Amino acid sequence: VVERVTIFVMDSNDEKPEFQNLPAIIDVLETTESGRSIYKVEAVDRDTGSGGSVSYHLQTPQSSLFAIDINSGVLRIKSGQMLDYEKAKTHFVTVITKDGGGNSNGKEHVMSSTATLTVNVIDAQDTPPFFIGTPYFGYVYEVSVPGSEIYTVSAEDGDVGNPNPVSYSFDEGDDGVFGINKTSGCISLLVAPIYLKREIFNIKVRASEVSSEDKEMDYGVTTVVIRVVDLNNNPPTFYGENGPQNMFELTMYEHPPEGEILRGLKITVNDSDKGANAKFNLRLIGPGRMLRAVPQTVLNEAQVTILVEDSAAMDYEKHQFLTYKLLAVEIDTPERFSSTADIVIHLLDTNDNAPKFSSDYYIARIPENSPGGSNVVSVTAVDPDSGPWGDVKYSIYGSGADLFLIQPTSGIIYTQPWASLDAEVRSKYNFYVKAEDAEGKYSLAEVFVTVLDLNDHPPAFNDNFLEKTMVIGAPVKIEAIDDDAEVPNNVIEYAIMKAEPDNNIFDIDADTGEIKLKSYIKSIAIIQNITKKRDCSWSLVVQARDRGQPSFSTTAVVKIDITEATQLKGGPLGSFLLLNRNNPLQIIGMLIGIISLTVIVTVIISTMTFLRNKKSNRILPNRRVRRRPQKQHFWNFKSPFKSPDTPIENFTVQEEQQDPEVTVENVNYNNNISNVVRHWPPPPCAPTLPPPPPTYVPGERHWTISTVSAAVAPKPKKRPVIDRRDTMNKALVSELKMKLEQKRMTT
């Protein structure tokens, strides 16, 4: 059996497009119209299918001047663009050709090639000739002879790519006494200088380009200035309003505006020679660069103008007068004739300075309790201006200046006559002092005053008789306060001066005032063995002494009742009440906090319940919620004050009380009005305060703390599963009851 199998070979996109006529070089005339095609790029792709199609593109830099048709490859000048040989003689255009894309090795690929087209711009005859080295100046001297070369002008055709020859001629101004070479542009003298009727000649010279047919085409025109000069036999000379003058004076105020002309100086400089012999430079020689003379170069004669260059340097406080020399020196003559003139400027003072303090801030120290009118500090400010502008007046202001005064002329700061400085009330003052001249110019400095503390307050206890209860193992603290402001005057040291009974079993921390039992006292039994008494009560005389000079001290009697932690019954509440029995405000504050927290929690829960019931719009059955009594658990609380060898006290809830039934009737009228009847058990009552302590019996001390019993409810059990049909039946019954109730209310 023979079968014929036809196999189609699918071409893959694996060949790049190839340019047929690139790279290439083309010449384009610069006058080519915009939008006109200049070249056709051809490329082929050997792939078949979509990969065989070719498109043409230009790189971005060339796209501003040229454009290419994406399909045909025709390159043209963009619309609105023109080639300009004078700007760019050659353009390099990069052309990119891409195929239509295709499958290669299982992926889509677009193949591309790049080539460069060189475009040479051919210059066209569209630019007139231009002169080189303008402006032109020439001179005729007294010794010149006819035929002497005066000046040579030079011009070139503006079309530098294909230039034409240039021909020179006069348009006007030569008066027939000058001639010009048509090809070289050399201007020469035709007559003797004595026949020249003018001193300056402004000659218009034309440069015309000549075509190959010897016809004049575009042309350019420039001016050649020719001056007739004589021999150098006169130096420059300065003149005033009344003739030659070598001394000029001016009185003016300091700091004139920069660029201002000193119009009071009327100076003229002149050189009677002609031409180059009358050309000279002007220079102003003097202190700094405050002034400048213009013009700097003079031909024959000029009005000299003096300008202000640096206004800040013209300061009366530095220079009462300024002296300058104005120098005129010939430039191109062998003789280099020169002359000078003196300029003296007298400056007048202005109020251009504000008073300036010797320091930006002043720091002063004064002891407290200094008498009123005591000197604090002296400030100094200087105003360099003259006359009344240099007089300085002082004043102070600021939040800290109430207790101080300043002498307006001397700058001495002192305290108010009635002022009493107390470092304990305020130890730092700062304020501003102002120095002002007659016209209101001022400057500020800041004054910092520190009141030095003196040891004028002894330490003081809150009470001269203090009562403390000490638990063995825990210290008690006493505190004295010293109203002095600074250390060491307010640093207090504590010491036990006397103990009653004499057996002192206490140590005191000298820095903190903490009183604690000596390290070997571990129990009440040890204390009773030492004192041979059952009563563990001590009276201590404690001294508080400061470290100032001189040192002050005070004493207080501290009565300390010693007890053991095992004697504190009633748990943490009992311990708190016992330890704070001498501080009733702390107990009241704790009770107020507990009551406030309870009220806030109750209000939040009530509000949330009300909003939930108000927003509820469902018909719910009348249900009875029964709370089953839960098995009570026993909780053991360990007292933190009992020693490890004592038995653990168990707080046991012995009574089991069944919770009352709670019946909730939820009747919904679909009108957002709820009629819910709730039967709650009576609210719990706040615990009563503990009973007052028993009366004190010497030799015997018993503390009775009320105990607290509590019941902790276990986690509630899961609700029983309710059948949905039973719920629907109950809902229908509830709805019938609701309708009967509505009819009864309407009748």
Automatic annotation (TrEMBL):
Keyword Membrane: yes
Residues annotated as transmembrane: 587-611
Gene name as annotated: CDHR1_1
InterPro entries reported for this sequence: Cadherin-like_dom, Cadherin-like_sf, Cadherin_CS
Official protein name in the record: Cadherin- member 1
Keyword match RNA-binding: no
Species in which this protein is naturally found: Ilyodon furcidens (goldbreast splitfin)
Subcellular location: Membrane
SMART domains in the cross-refs: CA (SM00112)
Every Cadherin domain range: 20-131, 132-238, 244-357, 358-461, 469-574
Keyword tags: Calcium, Membrane, Repeat, Transmembrane, Transmembrane helix
